[in-house]
Input
Amino acid sequence: MSNGGKHLVIIGGVAAGMKAAAKARRESPTMKITVVTDEQYISYASCGTPYFIGNIVKDSKKLILRESPYFKNMHNIDVFTRHQATAIDTKSKEVKVNDLEKGQYLIFNYDKLIIATGAQPIVPPLPGISLDNIFTLRTVTDAFKIKSCVDSGKVKNAVIVGGGLIGLEMAENLVLRGIKVTVVELLDQILPPLDKDMAMIVQKHVMEKGVDVVTSDGVKSFEGNSSNFVTKVITGKRQLPADMVILSIGIRPNTKLVLQQINYET
Ligand SMILES: Cc1cc2nc3c(=O)[nH]c(=O)nc-3n(C[C@H](O)[C@H](O)[C@H](O)COP(=O)(O)OP(=O)(O)OC[C@H]3O[C@@H](n4cnc5c(N)ncnc54)[C@H](O)[C@@H]3O)c2cc1C
Output
């Protein structure tokens, strides 16, 4: 591939975006490569974030593998953090980008475009959902917020909504931090991809480690105190005390940007 004077723009700067940028540079030493991401951090390991919250990974630098200067200095890749792509015009080959710090719009012309905008956690529109200390975990910034809440020492009871992989990793790590944890799962088993008999083995192990697991029960609402902090999770069958809630009920792909473009073209 020889793309001497061409410009590759990549939207999204985590696993897919930065890997695409690095691979493009290996293929073409001279191509201009630009990455835009709405986040402050790039190229980080989401997988380690539960263990950072649990104090097993002690240094946040182990989560953030590379920062923008590394990509500029080592690979001549320009990374624009806190820049959100808001529209794509495929006819004129332009991406409209909002500089989130300055509140200014920029236009990036491209010859090739890679969309690596990933996904975001599902947040159900339940009563009380906007109370403080109800979190999702996707980004390093999310992990910093959750860890800071745990480090405050004020969290005695946590409820984890969703018994999938992220929910259970959070349960493991919050228990390590001395917090009483209840996992609430709507289905009749945790870890839905597993057969039930296998999931029951995991559930038994998790409960032996001190986690309460309730299945076949769904969260209906959240209650809080006068300072707007969550205090209780109301499920179909229970009321659970909660100083912290982690929502881990799945993710949705970030398709808004692309769908806008499809609508624009039709
Ligand atoms: C807690 C946790 C544990 C995990 N553990 C594992 C594991 O053990 N093994 C494993 O394989 N995977 C694991 N994963 C999944 C893995 O982290 C994801 O698959 C990976 O992050 C996906 O990378 P991505 O680049 O496709 O998307 P994302 O990580 O979602 O990155 C997309 C980026 O694009 C940005 N963006 C979106 N829209 C725009 C826009 N319009 N303009 C600019 N930027 C935009 C987003 O803000 C984000 O920074 C885990 C994930 C989490 C949250």
